[in-house]
Design goal:
6-stranded antiparallel β-sheet; Pdz3 Domain; 11 helices; 2-enoyl-CoA Hydratase, Chain A, domain 1; 6-stranded mixed β-sheet; 3 domains; 442 residues; alpha+beta; globular
Amino acid sequence: MPLKIYRCIGLFFACLLAAHTALAATAAEEEKKEPSRTVSGKYDALKRFSQVLDLVVRHYVKDVTQTELINSSVKGMLQGLDPHSNFLTAEEFNEMQQNTSGEFFGVGIEISLENGQVVVVTPIEDTPAFRAGLQTGDVILTINGQAAQELSLQEVVSRIRGPKGTEVEITILHNHSNTPQTLRVVRDAIPLVSVKSRKLENGYYWIRLTRFSERTTEELKDALKIADKESKKDSGIKGIVLDLRNNPGGLLDQAVSVSDVFLWQGAIVSVKSRDEKRGHVYEATRQSDDIRVPTVALINAGSASASEIVAGALRDQKRALILGERSFGKGSVQKIIPLPDGSGLKLTVALYYTPNGNSIQAEGIVPDMEVPLENQRTDEKDNSRLQIREQDLNRHLESAGTKKSAGNDKSTEAREHLSRDNQLRMALQIVKTLPKIQEIKN
């Protein structure tokens, strides 16, 4: 599929460049000779594009080059397809590659473009944006004084990123607020550490996945090994709360391998493209380190893409109880296609389906137990988060004693998390009760 797309794109530009000079020179004469001729034929659209390109180059009020215009045209063409397809310049393509390996410098937010507005899908945990109070659903109005509506999504990303220690000024609008808020956020390294683990009680662990990058499965297995060693005196691990809330997704292969840690047979996800009626089905395999203890998975509106694959697989395979709020609903597959000049395409090529055959796209994963997160902060009573999901995006495709300091006492930190997180408390109670529930006969 990628090779076919690559060839088609190459052919398109080859035809465009070869035909441009001849078409521009003869366009006016042809229109005079046959003004009433019906526009038809497979090259008419290309001809019209070439005519408009020539007119803009010759008559636009400012001097613009063909390269600038063609890049803008390709960006517009792809952005018109769906919210996730895009053309990337060489610099943007390089930045894209940094998202799944190593680290980059910025504030730590995942964003999307909706009706010309840049919306925060989720702030990445333990990043400058997270600490500054950016929330799911915030609308970014300006970056360093420039209106975000004037920029493409990748241009917004480029302006928010920058050298470590430098400051970026972001003006945002919270949901249910009429007053914009300007934040000055200091950029920092955004490491792709994607797995965090805390012991909630003896034998019960809270595993938090913040994204799906190249080492997520490896980090998960390392965390589980530490938990297993730590809980040996308590008869081993008794239950896991797998937290996927505000996890914006990432790599498909990592979503599959993470699911496989909790599954030992059956389908995980199927991927279907336009030309593949059956698609490709990813299956779980039996492994010696499979985790078989009771599991509860937490999701919310910030859980997207790869995190929805994991939640859907565990739900459909009846391997975990899903608790929280309906997920984002990004069930489309993007292929990154490099072009010869260092630029690239981010193109939607397929859709995800859960083991039961349900599309994730614009539907999301509906939890087995819907438990809204209670807002513990009094200053946010009238400023609840806007629950932006894929279906709300324009052009979406149809179908996350003396008290020691918290930093030095993980058990204290876990208790503090439990005290202010009703979804986590509920998940812990359920994962402790699941064995008893499963004993009940119909």
